[in-house]
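Exam revision sheet. Question 4 asks you to relate a sequence to its structure. Input first:
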Amino acid sequence: MESRTPAEIVVSGPDAALSFAVPLHGQRVTVGRLEANDIVLHPDTQQLVSRFAHCTLEREGSHWLLVDGGSVNGTYLRRAGRLQRVRERAALHDGDVVCVLASVSDTSERRFFELAFHTRVADSQATRAAVVGGDDCLAYEAEQARLVLRRGGEVHEVPIRAQAHRLVRYMAERNAAAGAPALCTHDELMQAVWADEPMHTREELAKLVWELRKKLEPFGAQHLIENERRLGYRLRSCRD
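Answer key, structure tokens:
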């Protein structure tokens, strides 16, 4: 059987409001503006991203290729600080960043969606199994209104803002009710955080999760909040 290197794409919006990781599976992953794509780039207020398959990531043997879908505004690849337009296809290397135009200002300043390509030691399922069996977990202590990271015999408090408190409290309660880490959908999490407040978006939810993961980065524990592509998020909380 041919060896394949597991890989993932980390997607970031031009203002850091959007940030999530997508494990690369199968033979072809589409990138575009509509929900029908495997990786959805939004908000695209100037409609610069093609509706479907602006570009694709395609597996060829043990490698991944970036293929432009004939887009009007182009697909770019940044490598070693140099940005180049991809005319047809290009092999991806660890650390490459795929750039898709997100906006153009009145002064012609261009801003991009960035899709960072990373090869990984283990695939997402193997990583998840390691997390489940590991010592690290998150606990929300409702009486003290604090989020803590438990690692072995150590306890580290993680400072978070009010909206994040509502998010992790809800996810921890869902886990307790289910007896296992539960998948929380985007809609139920938005209801938990903002209730009936109008004008909130999934991009705000993604930013809130991104902020939480940044708080966990110093501990190397950002994996304890998992993204289920196009579905929602899962919190790896402690079993009391």
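Marking note for examiners. Confidence is low (pLDDT under 50) at residues 121-134.
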